[in-house]
Amino acid sequence: MAKEKFDIIQSTCIPIAIDNNNTDNIIPARYLAFTTRDPKFYGDAFMHDLRYNANNEPIADFVMNKPEYSEVPSKGVHEIIIGGKNWGSGSSREHAAWAIAGYGVRVVISSSFADIHRNNLLNCFVLPVIVSEAFQQELFDTVFANPKAEVKVDLPNQTVTNVTTGKSEKFEINGYKKHCLVNALDDIDYLLSVQDKTEAFEKAQKTF
Fold first, then answer.
1. For residue range 161-176, what is the model confidence (pLDDT) as tens digits?
2. What's the predicted TM-score (pTM) here?
C-alpha cells in the first residue's frame, strides 16, 4: 500500500455504525485466494457483500451507497471512517486492512478494535484511533446529521476533534508506530534508517 507521511487529517467521514464489524464483512473470504497487491482491487472489495446484492447491484440503503457518503475517498473527502465498537473482529486476515487502505481511507475511529486488525491497519499506513463510546456516538450523531461535517485527526498531538462541536479527545498510539507513520516508514524502511547505528552496536559487541 502507498506510504504517505501522516500529520493532520481533516476530512468528511463515512459512518459505518456496525458493532463487531468483522473481517469477513470488511472483505469476504473469497478474496483471500487472490495474490495481487493492487490497491484498487481490494478497495473495490471493501464491504462488498454489504454494498452489493447477489446480482452485484448496489444496495441503496447501505451507507456507503448513499450519495452523500458514496464518493470514493480523495484528499480531504471521506478519508475517515467512524466505525462501530470492536471493529475488525474475526479472522486475522491482512486483506481486511488492504481493503480499507485500498479504498482510500487514512483513519478508522472506533471505541475498540480487534488487536490483530489494529496492527494490520498500522502496517498498511491506516491510523486506528480509539475514542470513548460517548465521543464515538457524538461523532456518529454529527456526521449522520450533516454528511459534510469534518473530523480532525492530529497524529503529532494525538488528538481527534469534532470540528462541528469543537470537542476533542486524546488517543494513544505505540511510539514506534507513530514514528513510522509520521515518517512514512515501514518496518524495513525503519531498519534501513538505523543501519549505521545497528552496525556500530554490533561492532562494539565484538570488542568484548
1. 999 999 999 999 999 9
2. 0.91
